[in-house]
Design goal:
CATH class of the largest domain: Alpha Beta
Number of strands: 15
Shape: globular
Mean pLDDT: 92
CATH architecture of the largest domain: 3-Layer(aba) Sandwich
Number of domains: 2
Radius of gyration: 19 Å
Structural class: alpha/beta
Number of helices: 8
């Protein structure tokens, strides 16, 4: 059975994205943007996508999954690394930001906002499994840069289960506190778009005032982070913050120190905030279990 990740038109008038320069995109506008990108690419081929927490990266990712184009998510600007991966995986297209040099063996065919679309000079045809949705880098715990194959069903079922146990609704607002090329960061995008909620799109650091001003000004209800993020926040005044709209904290990507579990648990309970400690793996599409 063919699985569709999102039906964006269901929430067409809802706000899907708010960028940190104040631009709002409805679900209908996001759907239209993603369709424009997808029209530039042959269906059912492998495409490298250089990911940044920007509207063109997100719309490109959405367009690929909706049209069943298979993205390999890149979190690097290192051209030599991208070329090495291209020699191994032989993508039909590579989408790079304008500040990143083109790889050898590819020529420019189009642009999508700040992304430049390059096509392979020498076409290589190969079969792609019908269920394959995307290739995502492992979290790095093995010390390698291997890519994991994820199916449409993997993505959809995982997102649905997270929505259910975190009780994510159309009224919720989260922020891109992690790269979208990282499985946990991408999981946030998948779940919030599936639920018709709002994503605050930013590349700002979580330790900056601008990050939290953006979060608070737009009614952020949920923050997610890895252990290191929570460790850093504990040293930069997070416990002195009073964010009236915040109702959920989630943590995954490794074990959080027990003393910090206690401190965040206390902070959350005193403010009627839900604090979820979760476990996940890229192979299982990010978040698998929670406490």
């Amino acid at each position: 059975m063919r699985v569709t990740m999102w039906n964006l038109k269901t929430y067409k008038n809802n706000t899907a994205i708010i960028t940190d320069d104040g631009i709002k995109y409805t679900y209908e506008e996001l759907a239209n943007m993603s369709d424009i990108f997808a029209s530039c690419i042959d269906e059912r081929c492998l495409v490298f996508l250089q990911c940044r927490n920007r509207i063109e990266s997100l719309a490109t990712y959405v367009g690929m999954l909706q049209k069943r184009i298979v993205p390999l998510m890149l979190g690097t600007s290192d051209v030599s690394m991208i070329e090495s991966l291209a020699n191994e995986y032989k993508p039909m297209y590579i989408c790079l930001y304008k500040d990143c040099n083109v790889c050898n063996g590819y020529y420019r065919v189009d642009t999508f906002y700040d992304l430049v679309i390059y096509k392979r000079v020498e076409e290589v045809r190969y079969l792609i499994h019908n269920d394959l949705a995307l290739l995502l880098p492992t979290s790095g715990t093995t010390g390698s840069r291997k890519y994991v194959r994820l199916s449409y069903e993997n993505l959809k079922v995982n997102a649905e289960s997270i929505i259910e146990y975190l009780d994510i609704t159309v009224d919720d607002v989260t922020i891109t506190s992690m790269p979208m090329s990282y499985t946990y960061g991408l999981s946030l995008i998948n779940t919030y778009l599936l639920s018709g909620a709002t994503l605050l799109l930013t590349e700002k650091s979580i330790i900056t005032k601008k990050f939290w001003d953006f979060f608070e000004a737009n009614g952020g209800t949920s923050f997610s982070g890895v252990p290191y993020a929570y460790e850093v926040l504990s040293k930069t005044g997070f416990f002195n913050r009073e964010i009236r709209t915040l109702k959920t904290l989630t943590q995954a990507g490794g074990k959080l120190r027990e003393d910090l579990q206690d401190r965040y648990g206390k902070y959350a309970s005193e403010r009627n905030i839900d604090f979820y400690i979760m476990y996940g793996q890229t192979e299982a599409t990010a978040r698998m279990s929670y406490l």
